[in-house]
Amino acid sequence: MRVRKPRIGISACRFPPDAAxxxxxxxxxxFIEQSVAHExxxxxxxxxxxxxxxxxxxxxxxxxxxLDGLVLHGGVxxxxxxxxxxxxxxxxxxxxxxxxxELALIGAxxxxxxxxxxxxxxxxxxxxxFGGTLHQDLGDESPTSTTHRNREHYDxxxxxxxxxxxxxxxxxxxxxxxxxxxxxxxxxxxxxxxxLCVEATSTPDGVIEAVRGVSGSSWVxxxxxxxxxHDDRLPELAPAAPLWTxxxxxxxxxxx
Length: 256
Hints:
The protein has 256 residues and is α/β, with parallel strands linked by helices. The chain has one domain (7-252): Class I glutamine amidotransferase (GATase) domain (Rossmann fold, 3-Layer(aba) Sandwich), CATH 3.40.50. 23% of the residues lie in helices and 22% in strands. The chain has helices at residues 34-42, 60-64, 96-111, 121-129, 138-141, 168-172, 241-252, and strands spanning 7-11, 13-15, 29-31, 46-50, 69-72, 116-119, 134-135, 158-163, 178-182, 188-189, 196-202, 208-213, 220-223. The termini are close together. The mean pLDDT is 91.
């Protein structure tokens, strides 16, 4: 039987109404960062942005029914209210509406036994889904020797990670002990959820950089860096291909 291209859903970022915008001031806008879709297509998948869920129409299971996998990508902070805390600063209050939408998608994806790949915020939300918590700001709550976000350098800011021996990430990268990755985040995992295991940590300070699901039949994986961001000026970065191809190989099993 001929296998079709896997169909991958990408959860949407949200821009709430904003009077300062030049257009659609009173409207909520949904968007994806295009390099996520382009990477999926580059490695042989079809990419689809998933709309948020109106309370009166449909559910997450409907959105995923005809798809073969789910990507949760980056964006605004996860709301502290989503893991039982209050924001320590107003600017860290996040987007609880997006959280609720994506948490519903995660649950539906796992029930349908489809693979799930979380990037940056996506990895953090996986930890929240399974009962873990986050550092609202690594610099404030967990002062470290490593700068995890540099606003000036943005996606050109990098650091090393230590790969857990024998982990799936190690197998993806030929048993490499260390990798160089980009780093664009100020939040990170605090208490790790029981259903996740650590696949990599930042080398100087031990901040969790990759996780894998260890229960259930779905492939669940998350990384703190952005494998979709590439730049010819950074040849030292770990190639993205092993992550995308591993994820899509899982998706292909349901793409008939």
